[in-house]
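Note to self: keep these together.
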Amino acid sequence: MSKPELHDVSCVVVARSDVDALEQSVRSVLDQTMGNVEAVVVDPGTDGPARDAARALAADQPHRVRLVRARGALSVAAARNLGLDAARGRYVVVLGEGELLERHACRNLFDAARSTGADLVAGRWTRLTGSGKKERGPGWQAPLHARTRGVENLADAPELVARDSLTAGFCVRREFIDAARLRYAEDLDHSEVLFGVEAALGARGITLVPNLITTHRAAPDLAREILALAVANGRVAGLLVSLGRLDLADRRERAFLTDHVLPCARTFPQLTAEERRRATADLAPHLEGRADARALDALDPVERVCVRLLAEGDAEGVLAAAYALARPGTVVSELTERDGKVYWRADGLEDPRVRDLLDVTELGHQYRQLSDVRLLNRLTGCVVDGGRAVLEGRLALPGGLVPNRPPLTARLDVRPPGTGRRGFRVPVDEVHYDGHAVVWRATVGLTAGLRDLGVRDRTWEARLHLGAGDQELTSDLVAEPETVRHAPGIDVTGANKVSLRLAPRHRATGTLRAALHYVTHFRPARKLRLRLRALRKRWDRLNGKVVKQRVYRRALRRLPVRKGSVVFESHMGRCYGDSPRAVHQEILDRGLRLRCTWAYADSTDGFPDTAALVRRWSWRYLWALGRAEFWIDNQGFPHGLTKPRRTTYLQTWHGSAYKRMGFDEARVKTQNAPQREWLQRAVDRFDHFLVRSEHDVHTLARAYGIPEERLLRCGYPRNDRLIAARAADEASGRFPRPAAAAALGIPDHKTVVLYAPTFRGLPKNNKAVRLPLDVRRFADRFGDTHVLLVRAHYMEAASLPVCPPGTVVDVSAHHDVSELLCLADVLVTDYSSIMFDFALLDRPLVHFAPDLDAYLAERGSYFDLREDAGGPVVETEEELLRVLGTLKQTDGAWAEARRAFAGRFGAYDQGRAAAEVVDTLFGERFGNTEKGSGA
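Structure:
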């Protein structure tokens, strides 16, 4: 006989030792915006505060909280099964200890289940971080729950079973639970892992929703729980294999490594030696046979080594690898070169399978010198006696860095962290080679005078300065907490850096320091500091953009125009380049009597000394814009700054359009009216807008609503250099190369490939991003004959691996991309507008577009790249390398298409754009007597 359905959702909560967690979980159930929800509380089976709290909750809300009494102490899994048996809701949610439901969680789950008829509905969850103060969800969760969708085949959402997705944040139909006899495995400590997978495998329908369902899931103590997690993972993998789902089992094994094994290894520097030994011993049997090259091929080199060392039971080796994971690029082991490859260690290389796992060649350590390498400097001993500490350390030093073993010198530099104050130096008592390492010992006084101590500095950092012959390096000193546990005055930070707490050397010093501390901290001083802090906040507000825009609009833009003043800006002040630079150079070449000002974003490096320089958004910047007679930029001065009535604004723009722009963009179409009006007001400031073809007229000009009379059909001034370079190629050939080649160290015999991918519209804040192209593979294949110049979009920064010298060069910081285009023999790009410019040179152009269809679906386009490109369009890295390898033989077939491409998108680029712009803007004023002359 089936159980009656008295509620829409039953939430099972197991009462354990934490009374506050129990009360908060139940409260989150009672606070749901959906009313017909019950809390099924399973008591712990033993007397104590938790049982009393459970009874009190049930007595307070008898119609919504039901108490299920256990007859004795039960495991968590058994208690949850008791709750499942007692549940009366149509759907069941099981909460872990301390987990909280979002207020609309049950409504979101139930509505999705009712509309789709799914047996299982899952949303997102978050868990507490290691500190317990913040929480976040795993990175793989966002794409899985990007939108509401049904899952008929787990191959469409493999993360549901390949990862611990269904351990929280989901509901299951109670009829399905009963029919499938779905229960938590009482012999597993982490039975929720297996339960969620079994539910997904048996469910007739699964619905995923983007809503956040549960929060405050406890952060796992991986060192203690890794064995239980490994056992649960083994059960899940075995289940998938028994069902013939080998693909999902393989994914599960890989995810276990990245989600649990490697995070566990990362905690090793915080553990004691015994904890590290126990965690390694627990994991090693479960990794045996799984830590092979096939299973680990998706991991980074250090991650592969780390898993291999865990499988071998090498706790100390894992500790070193954990330091390498926390400090990318740091050398932590002996490193051995053999047959042109670099390995983590020399031991075990006779076995080809082990050799593959220990291969760390791609880290590029073999190309570094001692002076620019980071070495692990680990404190191995620490004894404090009175006011002195004897420190002993070991520095990893592969023999390849100092092959001749020159004499060593060393000292410790002690200084306050994060300050420019000069500290003091401590000579090292002993330093010598010890195999593939350097061992040192130093005696440090833990007292100092007032001049060194100051008033505020209490903790000091020690760094080792090592000299080997004519090479030198400085390395941080790191240690595990247990190393300094019995050393008063020595601490270890959360990042394992060693810090010293210095005490006053004499009583008078201590007294004077205490007096100074009192003077700066007693009540009047505290009040003064608070007052100064408030004044600083007010000052910051007065210097904020909101106030500056108000002052600009009300006062600065109404000032008299300064005749002949021009403000230039390129890519929002990030560089001195593009068409504004070309126009500025034309002004200089003609000797026009103009007052030129350039805006910069962060640094003045590379900007001209022939113009005044103002920082973007500074008061001087606003003053210059308010009084300028001419504005010239390629992207847009700040939208909130209205153009003065007597100012002429030339918008050179920064490239023809492939993707949809302006009011053609999907995101702009979905904006509200005030947002679209704000964009239109910004565009309406343009008095002149440069176009380089009719394509620009029908795309950019139309998309931004720019009237015909404001268009200048003269091409881009930045491309005048390219037209001249092509003429020079046709007249005298490609050599000698431009001066930029010598500056970058590029020899004449190498083919120069410029790789310039586009910006994909994601806010990176100039953080390093992984490029679609594996530049290391390029260097391995073409390094002897080619050099790859990598030009990241100006809104991003490229993250490049270490490659052989002279094979890959990051030119993202180069101000003028036109110089790079003239230097390049081949351009590799995807959808960047740089393709339209490079086509003017009539040199090989290759489109590497691995995400072409996805990009089109997201951004849209104005033409079919596959049909209209001026060069081959490839979607895989192997295709790209093959095309580059056969370019000399195949490029001739693309010559006609490339010229047609250049003619279609650069018809007005004739090499005179800068001259025409200057003539149009300034006429015969300011000494412009060369009107109508050549470029």
